[in-house]
Design goal:
The chain has 9 helices and 6 strands, in the order βαβααβαβααβαβαα. It has 205 residues and is an alpha/beta fold. Strands 1-6-2-5-4-3 form a 6-stranded parallel β-sheet, with helices on both faces. The longest helix has 16 residues.
């Protein structure tokens, strides 16, 4: 699959035409979290409880926990959506899943199960893996590079993404900022202004 920018992925989400598997990486944790949360908009809000699942892989610290986690993840990804054309599964702290610290027969079996899912993803599910920087030499990463859409969430690219970054940072310290104010700050920082996926300028919601 191809590498895409966060802006490219937002266009896919807005069009409702996403790829089966995404790997969100990069140093900007705020952008990764913001982009990952936007995938939920692929499902009607009233059906999100049935079709949007969030998984935290950070606690999969042993071979047995990893094996159980992968089994549950595969089941979640293979579950057909309910009254919706698409199901969304978001995995936070996916580096614990993709680069387990403990080697064991259970961990090796889990990795094989995960590779099978990545090679043959469920077409009606969008699987989103949110991770820190990964070792590109591993079998799992090479499988992701071949079958997943990789997204580098580094520095903001334009006024819209920079304004979202400002807004999310402000909210992280339990404060608020007017969308127009966030956009002004982004523009003053010199980011280019481009139309958003719906044809508007870079407004912040």
């Amino acid at each position: 699959m191809a590498a895409r920018t966060p802006a490219d992925v937002r266009k896919q989400i807005a069009a409702g035409e996403t790829d089966p598997v995404y790997l969100l990486q990069g140093e900007d944790d705020v952008e990764k979290a913001a982009l990952a949360s936007e995938f939920a908009s692929l499902v009607d809000e009233g059906l999100a409880a049935f079709n949007v699942e969030r998984v935290h892989a950070g606690e999969w610290t042993s071979g047995d926990k990893l094996a159980a986690g992968v089994t549950n993840l595969v089941a979640a990804a293979r579950t057909l959506p309910m009254m919706s054309p698409r199901r969304v599964v978001v995995v936070a702290q996916a580096e614990a899943l993709l680069q387990p610290k403990r080697e064991s027969s259970a961990a090796e079996a889990a990795m094989e199960e995960l590779v099978s899912l990545l090679e043959r993803p469920e077409p009606m599910t969008t699987l989103v893996l949110v991770a820190s920087t990964l070792d590109k030499r591993t079998k799992v990463y090479k499988t992701l590079a071949k079958h997943a859409t990789t997204v580098d969430c580094g520095s903001p690219e334009d006024v819209a993404s920079a304004a979202r970054w400002v807004k999310t940072r402000v909210e992280a310290v339990q404060m608020t900022i007017d969308p127009a104010g966030a956009r002004v700050l982004a523009a003053l920082a010199g980011f280019p202004d481009r139309p958003d996926p719906k044809g508007r300028t870079g407004d912040v919601k």
